[in-house]
Amino acid sequence: MPKVLVIEDDAQMLENYSRMLKRFGYDCIMEPSSDNALKTLKISKPDIILTDLRMPGSSGFDIISAVKRSDPDIPVVLITAYADIPTAVEAIKKGAFDVIAKPFTSEQLQIVLERALTQKLLMDENRRLKEQLRGTTEVEIIAKSPPMREILALIERISHTDANILVTGESGTGKEMVARMIHQRSQRAGMPFIPVDCAAIPENLIESELFGYEKGAFTGATTSREGLFEAANGGTVFLDEVAELPLLMQSKLLRLLQERKVRRLGSNRFISLNVRIISATNRDLNRSVSEGHFREDLYYRLNVINIHLPPLRERREDIPLLALHFLKRYSVTYEKNIRGISPEVMELLEGYSWPGNVRELQNIMERAVILCNDDYLTLHDIPSEFLTLKDDTLQIFTTYHSAKETFEKQYLQNLIRSVSGNISKAARVAGLNRRTIYRLLKKHDIKVGIDDPSH
Ligand SMILES: Nc1ncnc2c1ncn2[C@@H]1O[C@H](COP(=O)(O)OP(=O)(O)OP(=O)(O)O)[C@@H](O)[C@H]1O
Ligand SMILES: [Mg+2]
C-alpha cells in the first residue's frame, strides 16, 4: 500500500486526513509535530508527503526545503488556508509538487495524491534503472583537493587486497561511490556488488534478507530464497548505514565473518562464503561502541582500513570541478547546450556551506540545467530557496524592500538624466506629479543638474 506522511498540528484535521486516505487506499502516517517530521520521514520512508503550510515550529516551506535536500524524489503536497497566488507560486518554486487550498473536497485531494503517486513511481523506476547502469559503468570520482587526492591514492593501494573497509563521512559525501570504486578496482570486479541498506530493512526482515531462507522456514516463506550474502558470493557486500544494525544482527554478522559460512533460515546446510565487506556510516561508530550500541569486536573486524570523506565545505577546491562535472553530465542527459557557469553562480556555489554535501550540489546542478535557457548558467537558474538562505556567506540577495529601493533610485537617476533635469518633463514621462518627483529625489538624495529650468 502506498504510504502518505501527513504533517498537521490540528488533531481533528489529522484524523480527517487519516480517514480519507484510508478510504483512498493509502497507508497513513500521522505526524502532529512538524519539528518531528524529518525524523518520522527517515524512519517511515513515505511515498508522498502531505503537509499543512502554517504550523507552530517548522512551516510547510521548511519541510519542503528539508525534503528537497534529503529525499528530493518524494513529492510534497502543501495544504494552505491562505490560498493566495504568491504562496502557491513560492511553494512550487521551492519544489512543492502541488498546492491545495482549503477548503477542498476529498475528490480534489484524491486526484492530487494520485498524480503525486504516479510521479513517485516513475522516479523510483528511473532511479532503479540508473542504479542498474551504475553497477556496470565505471565510477568517476572528481577530486582536486589534497584530502581527496590522498583518498584516491589510498584506494589505489588497498583495492586489490581483501581487507574489509569502513567508509565514514557526512551524508552525501560520496561513501557509496568510494565503495563501488574499490570494488571495480579489485579482482572481484566481474562479480556482484550488493548494496544492503541496514537502515531501510525492517528489523524483523534483516535476517532473512541477509541470510536467505528455505521454503516453510516461517509463515509466508512459500518458496526458498537466497540471502544477499549468498548472492554476493565472490564479490563485495556494501553494508550501508551499518551503525543501524540491531545488536542481535551484529552478533550474527560477526559469526558469519568469523566462520565464512552462511546458513539459510530453516536449513541446516552451510554454504561457504567468499565476500569482501565494505561498510559505511555517517555516525561516529567509535562512540556507538563506547555507548554500547555497536559491538566492539565487530567494529574491529569491519574497520580494518578506514576511509574518511571530509564534508564538501572543508574541501572547497573541489566545488568548481564538481559543479562543471555535473553541468556536463546533465547537459548531455537533458540535451542542452550549456557552455559554462557564470562567475556570480560559481561564487555562490563556492561560498555556500553545503549541509547536503556533493549530493546537494548534484541536485542543484540538475535543476539548474533543466531550468537554463542560456549558454551559461546564471542566477536565474538557481532555485530561489538557495539564494535566500540565511547563510553568513550569502549576502548577494537582499529583501524585496531593499531591491525595490535600489530599482527606484536607478530609475530616477536615468529618468532625470534623459530629460536633462527638467522636472516637469520627468513628471510627464513617469506619469507622476511634480511633488512626488521632488519627494523621491529628496528621498534618494539625487542632485538635479544646473540645466534644470525649474531651479
Ligand atoms: N567526488 C565525487 N565526484 C563525483 N561525484 C560524486 C563525488 N562524491 C559524490 N558524488 C556523487 O554524489 C552523490 C552522493 O554520493 P554517495 O551516494 O556516494 O554519498 P553517500 O556518502 O553514500 O551519501 P549518504 O550518506 O546520503 O548515503 C552520488 O550521486 C555520487 O555520484
Ligand atoms: Mg549512501
Layout of secondary structure:
Elements: E1 3-7, H1 11-24, E2 27-31, H2 37-44, E3 48-52, H3 60-70, E4 76-80, H4 85-93, E5 98-101, H5 106-136, H6 146-158, E6 165-169, H7 175-185, E7 193-197, H8 203-211, E8 212-213, E9 225-226, H9 228-231, E10 236-240, H10 247-259, E11 261-263, E12 270-272, E13 276-281, H11 285-290, H12 296-302, E14 305-309, H13 318-333, E15 340-341, H14 343-351, H15 357-371, E16 376-377, H16 384-387, H17 400-418, H18 423-430, H19 434-443
Parallel strand pairs: 1-2, 1-3, 3-4, 4-5, 6-13, 6-14, 7-10, 10-13, 15-16
Antiparallel strand pairs: 8-9, 11-12
Helix pairs in contact: 13-15, 18-19
Bound molecules: adenosine-5'-triphosphate and magnesium ion.
Residues 175-176, 240 line the site of magnesium ion.
Task: Give an account of the 3D structure.
With 455 residues, this protein is an alpha/beta fold. It folds into 4 domains: 130 residues, Response regulator (Rossmann fold); 165 residues, Rossmann fold; 62 residues, Helicase, Ruva Protein, domain 3 (Orthogonal Bundle); 44 residues, Arc Repressor Mutant, subunit A (Orthogonal Bundle). The chain is 48% helix and 14% strand. It contains 19 helices and 16 strands. A 5-stranded parallel β-sheet has the order 2-1-3-4-5, sandwiched between helices. Helix 13 packs across helix 15 and helix 18 packs across helix 19. It starts with a strand and ends in a 12-residue tail after the last helix.
